[in-house]
Amino acid sequence: MSAPWDQRSLEEQARVTDLTLARWLPTVTSAAPFWSRRVAADGVEPRSLTSRSALTGLPPVREADLVADAPGAPGTVLLPSEDDVKSFAGSDVLRGIATAIRREGPTGKRTVLLREYQPVDLRRAGVEAGVVVASARSDLDRANRVGARAAALLGLDDRDVLLSAVPAGPTLAAFRVAHLAQGASITALHARGHDEDLAAVARATRLLPVTVLVVAVEEAVRLAKTLQGARLPMGRLRRVVTYGPPPDEALRLEIEEAYGGLGPKVDVRALWGPEFGRTLWAECTHGTHGLHTMPDLEFLEVLDPMTGEPTEGDGDLTLTSLGWHGTGLVRVQTGTWVDPLRLEPCPGCARTVPRLVGEMAAGAWQLPITDDSWRQRYVDLRGVPAVLAHTGGVRAWRVELRGPDDRVPRDRLIVEVAGDLDRSARTGLEQRLERACGIAPHLVAGVHPDEVRRSIDQLGGVFADLR
Fold first, then answer.
1. What is the DSSP letter of 361?
2. Are 214 and 182 in contact (CB under 8 A)?
3. pTM for the full predicted model
4. Fewest beta carbons within 10 Å, which of 13, 30, 82, 401?
C-alpha cells in the first residue's frame, strides 16, 4: 500500500515517478509533435523512454525553443492516436474506455478520449506570455486535487471565505487560485479584472466576510494600504496568502504589520507554482520552511544555466509535468533561479516532499530590453552558452548588455568570443545566437582569451548588465 503523497520516502517517490514516466513519457514523445521531432532528431525511440535515467538523458529546452517551433508552442500538446492510447495509456484510462464501450459503444470511447486528451482550457505563460498551456478535462480534475492539497498545506478549509486580488485572465496565476478554491470547496470571489486596480478588491470586501486574502507578493502591502484608506475593517481576516516567491523576513513582517491595522493578527503564507506548470507550491502552517512541491505530479531538477547539466548548487529550475495531458512538458528550463531542492522532511509539518527554500527569482536570465521601436522585449542570456557549447574553436567568451547611447538608440547584446572562428563560422554563429537569445548580437570575435578572462574577473562573471 502506497503512503500518502506527502509522506513517501525518497525511494518511494522515485518509484512513483518511474511508474508514471513508463506510460506518460512515451505518450508525450510519440503524440506531441514538438517532442516527437526532438527525440527523433536525437535518434531516440519513444518506447525506450520509461524511467528517470532515460528522461534526464534528453536535452533540456528553453522557452525560446518552444516559441521558435511555432507561436504558442502548440506542438507540445498531446494528440495521441488510438494506437498510442492502446500502447501507453494508464490502466485507469484503459479501464474507463473499456467500460464506456460496453455501455455506449463507439460514442462512449470517444467521450472518454475527449475527456482525457481534448484541450478545453488554454492559459498563457512565459516572460512574454508567448507559450500557451493547454489542459484537458482530466487535467482540470487533477488541478482541483492540486488545489485541495495546497489548501491543506496553507491551513484553509471549506469554512473559509477567500478573496483573490490576483487579476483574472488567461494566466496560470488565475488558473491556480481558482483551482485552489474549487479543489478545497472554499467560497471564493475573484474580485479583480485583468485591467482593474486594487480598488476593485477593496470594493469587493463589502460583499463577503473574508477570512483569506490572496494577493501578489509585490502588491500585498499596497493592498493593505488601499483597504485602510477605504476604512474597511476586516475583523474575520486570518490569513494573507502571497502569490509569488516567498517574501523575505523583512517583507513578511511588513505585510503582517500592514494588515494588523485592519483587524486581528494575520499569518502570512506563500503560494506559487512553476512557470509553464499547473501544480501549486505552498508553505505549511508550521512556519516558513519553504514551498512544498508535489513530486508525484512533477519532476523537478536544478540545472546549470551555462551548460544545461544537473548541478548540486543553485541554478535553473527545470520542469517535467508528470502525467498531465493537454500540454506535455519534458525538461523545460523555467528560467527561475533557485537554491538546491531540500529533500529532508519539513521541520515544521514533517511532510517528506522536496521543498524550495531560500531566495528565488523568476525570469532570472530573461531580461527586458528596449528595441529600435522603443518597445520592451526580452533577451535570454542562457542562449549564448547553449550555442557556444556547440561551436568549435571557442576558447573563452563573455556577454554584456549595454543601454542606448547617442549612436545606438536601443539596448545591445555584446558577445565577445576568444578563439579561432573563420568567416563562415562567424556568420552562422550570429544567426544562431539571434535565434537562441531573441535579439541580434553584436559579435566581437578574435579577442585574446586573457582579455576576456580579465573582463570576467572585473565584472564578476560571464554575464554583465551595464545599462
1. B
2. no
3. 0.92
4. 82
